[in-house]
Amino acid sequence: MNQSLTQKQVQHLSQRQIQALGFLSMNSMDLREEIFKAVNENPALEIVFDPLKSKKSSEIYNKKSTITSDAYQAALESKEDSRETLQHHLMTQVNMTKLSPDEKSLCERLIYNLDKYGFYGSMVSPESLLDKNRPLQNKKMLDYCLDLIHNMDPIGVCCKNAEESLFIQAKILGNASDLSLFILDGNLQILNPPNAETVLKKLESFKREYHNKAFAKEILLDRVKLSIEEVENSIHYITSLNPFPASQYDYDSSQIDFEKPDVVLTVERVNGLLHQDDFSTGKIFCDNHTYFQVKYASGFLPEVRLVEGINIDKKLLTDAKAFLGNLEYRKSTIVLQGCQIVHEQKDFFEKGPGHLKALTRRKVAAALGINESTVSRMSAKKNSKYIQTDWGLFPASYFYLSGVKNTDYPSDEKISADLIKTKIAEILEKYKAENSNKMISDNKLCQILNEQGIKIARRTVTKYRQQAGIKNSYER
User: Fold this and answer.
1) φ, ψ for residue 197, nearest 5 deg
2) CA 154 → CA 81, 118, 158, 439, distances in Å?
3) How confident is the model at residue 409 (pLDDT cuts 50, 70, 90)?
4) pLDDT, tens digit (0-9, with 9 covering 90-100), for 169-228
5) Which of 165, 210, 282, 295 has most Cβ atoms within 10 angstroms of its Cβ?
6) Which residues are within 8 A (CB) of 381 and not within 5 positions of it... i.e. 6 or more apart?
7) pTM for the full model?
8) Are the CB atoms for 45 and 305 separated by under 8 Å?
């Protein structure tokens, strides 16, 4: 046994650093409990606003002041709700439809993912509900199940929002004019205000501006002979549709089998000029006319601040400031990661699902100059953090994808499985158009992809083709 003298540098995390990292991985409800706990223990902190504290319920409580809270709560709980739930009504129709086990399972997940209005816009994106353990559940089956539920009673549920629901209702009913379909297909703002003369002017202006663009193609509006009478008929037809078809049913989420989304970020495309990315304000360049705005969504978190104008113990004040600093660290770190995700996955936020690039947490961490584990705390698959986009609500982990080598990309870049599936579909569509009587095999697909610089094996092509819901050459 020999004695030796060594020197080494060791960094120990302080209690405050541990708390800050813990906040980053917490969902809103867990963090909400931590905030209330801190406020109860430290008189230097106070709650300014609580989003879950209903003004309406407090007014009812004041009116019922002569009744004890326990008795009033018991009276509320004993009141029977005779309305049928939307989920039960839709599932009854699903059970009466001849479906495969995979289709039935997917329909059930879609139905129990709906919010109280019958839409999925505030819930998780339908693409996120595909079960990876069921190979037959793919994009094609998802589209079939969505269309099936759209046509169920009440028609127009399981849409992203009220505007899409109106468009779906008009298409299913089959009695809408071309002008009504044009307005409902993403142009509903033209009806604000719903005055026939004003709407007519807006439509004529829209038509002129559209055809002033280079290479403008024919649109549905070109088939319409615009007149006051035609506009009035469209306004009357659109207002006869129901923007909230699920309003007559109760809401039931008792059988939902996945966590309630904890939305931490929203990403919106905004009109405006931005010369370059500005992470400090959450703005990411898109094109010369628009940019993406990344916002932190506090969700159910109460607003907390330091109590003003009181004498307090110095240690309590220091602890309170540290607690608020850790909350701000969570917010700023999540927004920074969101900005980097939007920067890296710009094609997705412009064009939607099917355009994701290969992206690793290590690359995001390196770009931001933070530890990879910090990125993982925000985007771990087991946690419930979601990002609201124009294409739906997606888990943060959705934007991280592995990839395969592409010789056309820089040495450290790869092409994602998502893009390969899109390329396979494009190749098959192009080949079918050029060779209508011939089918292309997976070997030929592999050869074409390799020629395009994507180094991929035939069996991998087969796997991605199946995941995209495309049949083999013998069945196509």
Assistant:
1) -65, -45
2) 20, 10, 10, 41
3) low
4) 999 999 999 999 989 988 888 888 888 899 899 888 888 887 777 666 778 888 888 889
5) 165
6) 395, 397
7) 0.59
8) yes
